[in-house]
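Colleagues,

For the teaching module next term, I've prepared a clean inverse folding example: a structure given as tokens, and then the sequence designed for it. I'd like students to try predicting residues themselves before seeing the answer, so please don't circulate the second half yet.
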């Protein structure tokens, strides 16, 4: 009897410490969203995942029956093991290295585009690239126009910036989904007027970092969490992140 109590207490502590772990009991409500940036043959920083590591990670997801979706396909109830793969900043290397892996494993990913960087930075996809990238595997979405920290600019500036982000993609005939990844994962979370701007702009979901699984359908669509995958993560770390989200207490 005592052992059962100890076991229950232990499980309770694990569930409390790794909040959202309880979602394991409700797989139709558990939505995982992974966050990546750059993909290159070799990595020397946490925002770049090596091609080899990414291949191992996607292979793991594929052999363990995880299902990838686009945001525009997201609806409740979820299939168990639903996962969204997201890549920020629109790196050219996503087209070169990520896309062939998506095709190989039959997976989908969403790429968030800060429009001021297009046709400006040589390491980012051009308008032409974005228009032509295979939309069976890649969904494009919003990452602001100027990539400024939303906590450091006024709400007026946020609104103008988001309108510009949308306007540029529309003008260039680039199909996209109205989902926004906050630059640096940062947003004024206690400001209801910020969320009103998102509503007014018809943005369906806003993505922070937070490093935990989401309950879906969500009551806080503008605070969906993503789990950051780092360049230095081993496959074991990756697998643990799928379970626990945040690894550091
Ligand atoms: Zn970014």
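(Answer key — instructors only)
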């Amino acid at each position: 009897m005592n052992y059962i109590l100890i076991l229950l207490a232990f499980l309770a502590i694990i569930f409390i410490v790794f909040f959202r772990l309880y979602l394991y009991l409700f797989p139709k409500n558990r939505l995982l969203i992974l966050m990546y940036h750059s993909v290159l043959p070799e990595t020397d920083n946490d925002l770049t995942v090596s091609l080899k590591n990414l291949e191992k990670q996607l292979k793991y997801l594929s052999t363990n029956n995880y299902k990838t979706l686009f945001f525009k396909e997201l609806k409740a109830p979820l299939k168990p093991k639903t996962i969204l793969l997201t890549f920020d900043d629109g790196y050219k290397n996503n087209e070169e290295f990520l896309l062939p892996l998506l095709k190989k494993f039959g997976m989908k990913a969403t790429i968030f585009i800060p429009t001021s960087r297009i046709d400006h930075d040589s390491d980012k996809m051009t308008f032409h690239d974005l228009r032509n990238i295979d939309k069976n595997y890649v969904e494009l979405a919003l990452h602001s126009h100027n990539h400024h920290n939303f906590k450091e600019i006024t709400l007026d500036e946020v609104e103008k910036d988001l309108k510009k982000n949308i306007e540029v993609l529309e003008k260039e005939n680039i199909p996209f989904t109205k989902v926004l990844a906050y630059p640096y994962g940062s947003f004024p979370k206690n400001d209801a007027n910020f969320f009103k701007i998102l509503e007014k702009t018809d943005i369906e979901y806003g993505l922070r970092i937070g490093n935990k699984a989401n309950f879906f359908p969500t009551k806080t669509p503008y605070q969906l969490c993503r789990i950051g995958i780092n360049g230095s993560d081993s496959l074991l770390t990756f697998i643990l992140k799928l379970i626990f989200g945040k690894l550091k207490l």
